[in-house]
Structure formats: structure tokens, C-alpha cells
Design a protein that fits this description.
Layout (H helix, E strand, L loop, with lengths): L8 E4 L7 H4 L5 E5 L2 H6 L3 H9 L3 E5 L8 H12 L5 E6 L1 H12 L7 H6 L9 E6 L11 E6 L4 E6 L7 E4 L9 H19 L6 H23 L4 H20 L4 H13 L3 H30 L8 H18 L16 H9 L2 H4 L8 H12 L1
Parallel strand pairs: 1-8, 2-3, 2-4, 4-5, 5-8
Antiparallel strand pairs: 6-7
Helix pairs in contact: 4-5, 7-8, 7-9, 7-11, 8-9, 10-11, 10-13, 11-12, 11-15, 13-15
Amino acid sequence: MFTCKMPGTVCAGENALNALGTLCGGARKAAVFSDRGIQASGALALPLKKLEEAGIDYTLLCDLPAEPTCDQAQTVVDAFRAVDAQVIVAVGGGSVMDIAKLCSIASGEGVTVRALLEDPGKGRKAVRTVMIPTTAGTGAEATPNAIVAVPEKELKVGIVCQEMIPDAVILDGEMIRRLPLKIAASTGIDALCHAIECYTSKKATPFSDLYAMEALKLIFANLEPACLDSEALESKNAMLMAAYYAGVAITCSGTTAVHALSYPLGGKYHIPHGVANAMLLMPVMRFNLPCCQAHFARVYDALGHKGAESEAEKAAWLLERMEQMVKRLDIPTDLKQYGVPKEDLPGLVKAGMEVQRLLGNNLRTVTAEDAREIYAGLLG
């Protein structure tokens, strides 16, 4: 048996933000989660205007850290508990949406973020959630996952609780029109990682294959124009759809070794999640080639390309095209820029191998020696 759980309502495309008042479900007051960068960019103004037009009072919770630790997330949960809100509206990227989702399930007695790390099943949805992503990549608007760093482990950890699946989502290209190239590129590659990892996961199902493949079609056609052309609103809307589809695929299936090995890079060195995944995408895909060649060939066929005849040729083209996208978007592909010393290699391997929740999904078994070779390639 396989299942597919996703948000109850998704509004997408031009003027999708007009639905915000209705999606708040008659709430008197909203807790609006965002961050100072989004607020300063002006991207928060339109959602707030829509709430005001709907007659919905709101409290802003904007002091949200990027790549939060579990304790930083708890501070936000405590602040939210003091707000008498009937709906959460999250306007932001993955970290904003993840913290908002945690707040939606952490209102019970003794339900702290650290408690959820130990037992995610303690969480119970207590307030309606509406997600408005401001990046086209994380897919957090579709998933039951929240990622937090655990300082003493120097590792990022995923809290997975079905209660965190959002109630509603708004995908509106206006929210990513002014997104800086650096962020657009790294989050877009994150969506690519989600899609290709879920499609090649041991836990893949017909549902995850469907959504992952549709995401891949959209990403290959739209990632570069969406990032490189500020006026390419059609491509931006397509990338928001792709990121959402890839998020649904995560919920149905699960990511694999790219995400598993990236968690220590974010947890210890604070490398942005999308950048860490971009660094590991090609090394892991090449490592997986012996077990995933047929999968890669099917993606080639679905993209409608011609010329390659054998399965091996199709897979080779796909890997080369993914590498071209990473290079063209100028995303870092090694750890030199982040000052990671070669002496840290044993610690990276140890931390990466602890993420068995995701390594277990990888079609090709990843040993500690395999992880060592992959990390060593990033260290130069």
C-alpha cells in the first residue's frame, strides 16, 4: 500500500494571493511568520494588504533566524503561544515555513521542539496554516517536515510529523519576482535535488514518481530563465509549481544521500541548505549511476530529448545537463569557500553516516568509505 498526503487547498498562478482572506477560514487574527530580510525587501507588503482587505487582524513574528537551531525555534514557539491567533500565515522560505509548522503542532503541554526531536508523534495540529513560499525550492509548503540544527550534534535533523502538512498553500510568482539570483539559484537546485532524489529513492511510489517527474520537467525547462530573468514571471510561476510538486514527492517518498550528506555541512559550517545540496548533487548522482541508470534514462525520455539511443547515453546526457545548470547558476561546488579544513573529514563522515533515515533510501548502499570519498572530492 502507498499513500499521498498533501495540503487541502493550493491556489497557484497570477493573482493567487487574492485567495488569502478566504484561505484563512474566518479567522479573526493571524500570526504572520516571516523574517527581516523578506520584510525589508517589500515582499511582505502584499500578503499583509490582503489580510487587511479581508478584515483580519495580525501579529508579525519576523525575528526568525535562517537555518534555525532547535532552541531558536523554541523561542519562536514560545512567542507564538502568547499570540491569540486562529491561523498561521507563513511568508518566507524553508526556515520560516518550518518554524511556522512547528508552532502549529507545539501548543500542547510539554510539547517542546526538543521533545518533538525525540518523538514527533507528540505533535497535534492546533491552528490552521497557510503557506506562501518566497523561494521556489524548499517544498516546505507541501511537506510534514521541519529541519532544525542540533548544536551539540553539529547536525541538522528533520522532524517529521504528518500533522504539520499545511492546510493551504499560495503559489504566486509575484512573491519571487525580486528574489536575488544567489537565493533563487540555490533554492531552485534544492528543488531539483528533491525531485531526482525522490524519483530514485528506495521508497519511491507511483505517487512520488508522478510528482517528481512533473517537477523535473518544469525544472529543466524553467530553472535558468526563472533565476536569470527578473521579468520571466511565467517561469517563476512554473518553478513554484515544480518546488511544490517536489515537496509532495518528498511526502510520498523521501530524499536520499544528497540530503543525508548535506546535513552536517549546514549543522556545523552553516552552509545554506540549497548550496550544500548543490555541492553534493553531482558527486552523489555519479556515485548512484550504476543503480540509477534506468531511472536517469526515463527522465531523459520524459524531457522529450532526442539523439541518445542507449540507456547509458541517456543517463550521461542527464547528468551532464544537471551539472551545466549548477555551473551556469554559479553555485559553489566545493567547500574551499567555506573554510572547511581537510582535517574535518573524519567528523564529516561520522556525522553524515548518522543520517540513516535518508541514507537508507538510497538505491546504492553508502558505506563510510563511500561517504569519505564523496566528501574528500569537495575538499579538493
